[in-house]
Design brief:
It comes from Rotaria socialis. 30% of the residues lie in helices and 22% in strands. Helix 10 runs parallel beside helix 11, helix 17 packs across helix 18 and helix 18 runs parallel beside helix 19. The protein is of the alpha/beta class.
């Protein structure tokens, strides 16, 4: 369509077209054409979302579109996810400015995705930004100095943020307890993953006016707390409080009671916790705690109590009766190791945040104080985690639980052990399960790497079940087992693949990588992380070459290890590695790509 025909379209149709485009595409395609189009797309200049750009698109934005849109940008997203090195390159654009506000005078909000140790320069340039969201790269441990810099510039400076998100940091962020406390009276919303309870208490002292607080405490420590959370320290205006932990010893029920009952302003309370404290299973305890929160409108909790041999045998009837008496609707069920207690229904419409649910296939047989509430489909649950704990389980139990959360966008299934001959009524099950919004599937470990073929294909290769599915993460051994048993089958709609390997997955071989690439022929993004370099070092050069040569559609590729070093890469500098990669990809010296190479990682962004 030429410009004259485009100009004849009414604004309503142009705006309808824009719904299906990224802000970058709108500005790049329609910007600077004429005054009428400029007015029509003006709202899209406010949002600069660099997430998922190719390297050439980022180059175009930084060299041409940035100067045209800089004064209009209000919300900025910079991301290393599927564009490795983007935050570092963005920092180079801003290196001559003392503050991002000097470059973007109207910026209000900044989001950094997959933040790494290489990206810390941006932290000193956050003055006058009101909202900062940082998600760390899950595959790269942040150094101690990065922890210090994050704490310094986000919590111990004069930056008066109104909203902060600091999430995904391995083992939680370690805060500085030996510096003077600087209160941020402007901070109203905080989402943070901290290392210890001490860090939680410190956040209370630093943020006296919190209204919305979402916190994860990652680790328990046997050390005595540096300070106790007194009533004076607790926020006086808090309305939303979510607490989560996967460490069984972080929070006893007694400590939870002291914490929650002394924050009477809470209106919405959410808890997602692993624990070894059976007092969480007593409805009378919950009645006492919640009755002291006089403004409470809704309490929602997911409790997983790990069972030990020295515990008194669990009586489900007594548990259900105590919660009926407390008028708290719950479901409960026991699998091999865990007693699960969840409030019902799984309706998160009241919570102004993305909620997740962790559940077991055994939930199919759960008992409830009100079965009608239990059987209701979920609402506003974004992520579902189903953990099978390697207990032998039939397909129907998995599907029954998953189907109750039909609106999820992310599904993670862990420790799957479905008997190989369990294929009954698979066609009927296909008709009954629909996951219309599912985009990401994390299939994390089958028993002995033996993936159940029919279950996997039902979730991944059946259009009527998961029409939006595009991304898969999986263990290397599981995926190779699968590929060897799916001769001639390919998964064209999977364009994003994340592979993880460890000792149980064995050596990475060229034959297996070749088979994998034939099974997934349409990859745009490929990440392969191994626990140890020794599992891939033997064939590393050939592995990289076959992946890049066989996957011409790749936009980003990353191969890394947690332990040891990638020997081939340690012998190359960045320039030599880039030249080698360009030869493999058939690029000339003038065609651009971004390559990062160090002892533990090679990443490519095209």
């Amino acid at each position: 369509m030429n410009l004259s025909k485009l100009e004849k379209l009414p604004d309503e149709i142009l705006l309808e077209i824009c719904v299906y485009l990224k802000p970058y595409d709108i500005i790049n395609s329609f910007g600077q054409l004429n005054s009428r189009l400029e007015r029509t797309i003006s709202q899209y200049r406010h949002d600069a979302d660099l997430h998922h750009l190719t390297f050439s698109q980022f180059y175009r934005w930084s060299n041409h579109l940035l100067s045209y849109t800089a004064t209009s940008i209000v919300n900025l997203v910079v991301s290393n996810w599927n564009s490795p090195g983007q935050i570092y390159l963005f920092n180079q654009l801003a290196k001559d400015y003392d503050s991002l506000h000097d470059l973007f005078p109207n910026i209000n909000q900044l989001r950094l995705i997959d933040f790494t140790n290489d990206d810390v320069e941006i932290l000193s340039k956050l003055a006058r930004i009101k909202k900062i969201f940082i998600d760390a790269d899950a595959l790269v441990s942040l150094s101690y100095s990065t922890h210090i810099l994050l704490d310094k510039y986000i919590f111990c400076s004069s930056n008066h943020f109104k909203e902060i998100r600091l999430w995904g940091i391995e083992n939680g962020i370690r805060l500085q307890h030996d510096v003077n406390i600087l209160e941020n009276v402007h901070l109203e919303r905080l989402t943070i993953s901290v290392a210890f309870l001490d860090d939680l208490i410190l956040m209370f002292r630093r943020s006296p006016n919190l209204v919305h607080f979402n916190v994860e405490v990652v680790q328990h420590t046997a050390k005595i707390l540096r300070q106790n959370a007194t009533i004076e320290m607790l926020p006086k205006h808090l309305k939303f409080f979510h607490f989560q932990t996967t460490d069984q010893q972080v929070l006893s029920y007694e400590d939870l009671d002291k914490l929650v009952s002394n924050m009477p302003t809470i209106e919405l309370f959410s808890l997602d916790a692993d624990t070894n404290d059976v007092n969480y299973a007593d409805g009378y305890n919950w009645q006492h705690t919640l009755s002291s929160v006089v403004n409470l409108k809704r309490a929602y909790f997911k409790i997983r109590i790990y069972l030990t041999l020295d515990m008194t045998p669990i009586d489900e009837d007594s548990i259900l009766e105590s919660f009926r008496h407390a008028n708290i609707p719950i479901c409960c069920y026991i699998d091999t190791k865990i007693l699960h207690i969840d409030t019902i229904p799984y309706n998160m419409a009241d919570f102004d945040t993305h909620m997740s649910v962790t559940i077991s296939p055994s939930a199919k047989s759960a008992r409830a104080t009100n079965m009608e509430l239990f059987q209701q489909k979920s609402r506003r649950v974004q992520t579902l985690i189903v953990d099978g704990q390697h207990d032998p389980t039939v397909i129907d139990d998995w599907l029954c639980v998953i189907n109750r959360f039909s609106d999820i966008e992310i599904l993670q299934i862990n420790a799957v052990n479905i008997p190989e001959n369990e294929n009954t009524n698979i066609e009927t099950k296909t008709k009954n399960i629909k996951l219309p919004n599912l985009s990401y599937l994390h299939y994390i470990r089958s028993t002995s790497c033996k993936v159940h073929i029919h279950f996997f294909k039902l979730l991944t290769n059946t259009i009527i079940v998961s029409p939006q599915l595009k991304a898969l993460s999986m263990m290397y051994g599981d995926l190779i087992y699968l590929c060897k048993r799916l001769s001639g089958c390919s998964f064209e709609r999977i364009n994003e693949l994340w592979l993880y390997g460890g000792d149980a997955d064995g050596q990475v071989t060229l034959i297996d990588i070749d088979l994998l690439l034939k099974t997934f022929p349409c990859l745009y993004h490929f990440v392969f992380n191994n626990q140890s370099s020794r599992l891939m070092n033997r064939h590393l050069k050939s592995i990289v070459e076959i992946i890049l040569h066989s996957s011409p559609t790749l936009i980003s590729f990353r191969i890394s290890c947690n332990k040891g070093s990638l020997k081939l890469l340690s012998l190359m500098d960045n320039e030599a590695c880039t030249a080698w990669i360009k030869r493999i990809c058939g690029l000339n010296n003038h065609e651009q790509m971004h390559v990062i190479v160090n002892k533990k990682m090679l990443s490519i962004w095209k």
